[in-house]
Predict the structure of Radical SAM domain protein.
Amino acid sequence: MAIKEEFLPKWIAWEITRRCNLNCIHCRSSSTMESEQGDFSFEDGKKLMDDIAKISKPTIVLTGGEPLLREDVWDLAAYGTEKGFRMCIATNGVLVDDEVCKEMKRVGIKMVSLSLDGSTAEIHDDFRKQPGAYEGVMKAAELFKKHDIPFLINSSFTKRNAFDIPNVYKKAREIGARAWYMFLVLPVGRAEEANAELLNAEEAQYWLNWHYELEKELILKGDNTILVRPTCAPHYYRIFNQNAKRDGLDLKRRNLVFGTGGGKGCVAGQSIAYIDCHGWLRPCSYFPISDINVFDVPFDRAWFESKIMQDMRKIEEYKGRCGVCEYVKICNGCRVRAYWEHNDYMHEDPICKYVPVKMKVGIKHKGLLNKTPEKGDDIKDVTP
């Protein structure tokens, strides 16, 4: 079968345990110390990586839960390095010490992802529901610098802590992060229960415009100290293009060596994937459903045979505003938010309120126009 290069996995997050030592309000898997470990063995893990290697050599991020709680984490990482994968690890930082850093170096960890959701202990620890969590991140960052281990910062934001976004960026830069990812929390796991705290469309628009100004300043200054990107906000790619055009600028964006390889908004199921601790394959870490298990169907088949994964690559079949949007090929919309709002992952992304040109001029598309407006059909154009 002919394989499109753009639809090969370049980045895979692998949940090797669901157990976690924190109790964060936004956790996609609602993890606790009592959560399941996942019943796959080290041999199962090796077989999975063998199967992945048959079609690609992506970045593999060992995640959780807290991956450092799994006893064979270093064996899995070492085997992945041996297979030629770029092995990375995502941790909350609390369990990091000198011995952990030495193991990371030994097994060839190329990048570590640290979570920082507030610029102070008060804000971060409230978000993570664990006193001392902030101190753990700061300690881990110092240890990574001591052992020459590159790290990036992932920061998750809701109404609870969005006011602190500029300060969190400054803190990530101050502690030496290679990159800073501003994540707009999705309604998955505990975050679904805290739905009232999630940023709405107007709030997201405000902070994405703020992020554009930040990224523009870094580009114009030639400042390569830290790479910045919003996460789970694919319509930022539209906003970036629109704002740059408004400003009369041709801005060349940087890419992280161990990024998702997409060069566009959402690449879930196209060049990235998530495998949970039971082997269920999903388009991304936050996608709530799966239709195939990589311990039953080898990854090199599952990647192509899963209907959900196939659908992620059919942007011409997207519905609603996403289906007619002139920016869809650089954005793709968030399929998780579409599923949460419409119970249909092919529908429009509710956090983006942009009205496509085809809608503005009244072109019919799949029966969407000229229908009687219904509750939730607000398409007010809030694009600057």
User: Anything to note?
Assistant: Residues 153 and 305 are 34 Å apart (CA to CA). The longest helix spans residues 201-221.
